[in-house]
């Protein structure tokens, strides 16, 4: 839709783009369904020779669970194409030699962390780790709060305030962070995931690509479009998830292109 375009550094045919970094929730999928036209858009992208990576700050699922979910929706994807905030979190912990944590997160996230050699139920954790916990319990909140008040630092998998769904916004990590801050006065020492540019730059470098030949496609201004800005790639904002044109008008992020949904791209 031409009236969505903010400026003309990129057009819907996406000339010169060699790789797409695609957000999932609100961009390719919404709730349990693919966004209309998303599967066909991915077919057009691959037919044009574009490499497609799938990014999500949603740390509630493991890579294996994401593959199952995406394959069920008809989206062809391999494990190496999936980049999660949990990967960024594990890299951050590894850089600090941290292997003892208390996790507020799902069993899928726990499985990824344990497989990487990180304990998630440590009695004396080096960090409290907060992910998007769709299996939240009061016991987890209680235990984490006690650790935080004893001085254990808090690290979060991503900053998203809400998770978009067909029924409206749902509480995400950012909402849980507010809960812990109100309860304990503690703020995170680090927040992983988008918009940290490392989420995509390592893949760009590994593929021998140039940032200006890549695009980040997503529905959030403060994560997806801010990541695009920090990484030096094109930002393509879709209005099928969290952000609206009203949000864009007051945002410091300036996407290269704004469209209603991915269905409008590469036609």
What do you see in this structure?
By secondary structure, this protein is an alpha/beta fold. The chain has two domains: 17-57 and 194-264, Rossmann fold, CATH 3.40.50.1000; 86-191, HAD superfamily/HAD-like (Rossmann fold). Helices cover 33% and strands 19% of the residues. The protein contains nine helices and 14 strands. It has helices at 38-47, 63-72, 85-95, 107-115, 138-149, 173-184, 198-206, 221-231, 245-249; strands at 19-23, 29-30, 33-34, 51-56, 82-84, 101-104, 127-130, 154-156, 162-165, 168-171, 190-191, 214-218, 234-238, 257-259. The strands form four sheets. It has a six-stranded parallel beta sheet, sandwiched between helices. A hairpin with a 2-residue loop joins strand 2 (29-30) and strand 3. The longest helix is centred in the middle third of the chain and has 12 residues, at 138-149. The protein is globular and about 55 Å long. The termini are close together. Residues 1-8 have low confidence and may be disordered.
């Amino acid at each position: 839709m031409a009236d969505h375009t903010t400026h003309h550094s990129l057009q819907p045919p996406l000339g010169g783009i060699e790789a797409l970094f695609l957000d999932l929730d609100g961009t390719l999928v919404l709730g349990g369904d693919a966004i209309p036209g998303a599967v066909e858009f991915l077919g057009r992208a691959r037919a044009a020779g574009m490499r497609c990576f799938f990014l999500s700050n949603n740390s509630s699922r493991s890579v294996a669970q994401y593959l199952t979910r995406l394959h069920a929706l008809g989206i062809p994807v391999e494990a190496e194409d999936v980049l999660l905030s949990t990967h960024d979190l594990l890299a951050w912990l590894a850089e600090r030699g941290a292997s003892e944590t208390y996790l507020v997160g799902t069993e899928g996230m726990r499985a990824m962390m344990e497989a990487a050699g990180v304990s998630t139920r440590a009695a004396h954790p080096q960090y409290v780790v907060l992910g998007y916990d769709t299996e939240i319990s009061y016991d987890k909140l209680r235990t984490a709060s006690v650790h935080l008040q004893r001085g254990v630092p808090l690290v979060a998998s991503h900053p998203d305030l809400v998770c978009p769904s067909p029924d409206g916004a749902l509480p995400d990590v950012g909402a849980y962070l507010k809960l812990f801050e109100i309860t304990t006065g503690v703020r995170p020492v680090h927040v992983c995931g988008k918009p940290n540019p490392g989420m995509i730059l390592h893949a760009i470098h590994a593929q021998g690509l140039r940032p200006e030949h890549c695009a980040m496609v997503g529905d959030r201004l403060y994560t997806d479009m801010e990541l695009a800005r920090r990484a030096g790639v094109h930002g393509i904002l879709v209005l099928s998830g969290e952000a609206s044109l009203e949000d864009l008008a007051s945002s410091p992020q300036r996407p290269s292109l704004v469209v209603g949904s991915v269905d409008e791209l590469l036609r």
